[in-house]
Design brief:
The chain has about 170 residues and is of the alpha+beta class. The chain has helices at about 20-30, 60-70, 105-110, 135-145; strands at about 5-15, 35-40, 50-55, 75-80, 85-95, 115-120, 125-130, 150-155, 155-160, 170. The strands form two sheets. The chain has a five-stranded antiparallel sheet, with helices on one face. Strands 5, 6, 7, 8 and 9 form a five-stranded antiparallel sheet that branches.
Amino acid sequence: MSSFSEKHTITALVEDRPGVLNRISSMFRRRGYNISSLAVGQSETSGLSRMTFVVQGDAKTVEMVAKNLNKLVEVIKVLDISDENAVSRELALIRVNSDVSNRGEIMQIVDIFRAKIVDVSKDTLMVEVTGDEDKVDSLVDLLATFGVHEVMRTGTVAMSRGVSFESLSGSEN
């Protein structure tokens, strides 16, 4: 596998105010960086949000992404947790063709993946799955044989194990 195709996970603590996401995505666009996954949500601190980016590239590209993020006034802290002992998860909703003849088989696959059925209609099932990117991809691939109508993914969220974000070494503005 070439170093360009490596996926790296970057987390950032940012100000929670209008326009911050736009400024950050504009920085990525201007610099020609591609975001494979982006998840944003409020943090435990009022007025601050956490962002998780998954980007592809070599170590130099990821270092430049972090440096450029740190230049933005609204960014408080940036960490590359790609090499950290971290937990990462993604949530996906998958709408798959289903009728009486195949519903049992789909339910068995869903159980194997520790996913759950969250909606049932006459012709489809909606499945919720949480896990790493490979788990979500594998379930989508298996369900594709029945006909997948729609997939909605949250993007990866990640956190280093055992230590808080603030105690990790990293760049600060």
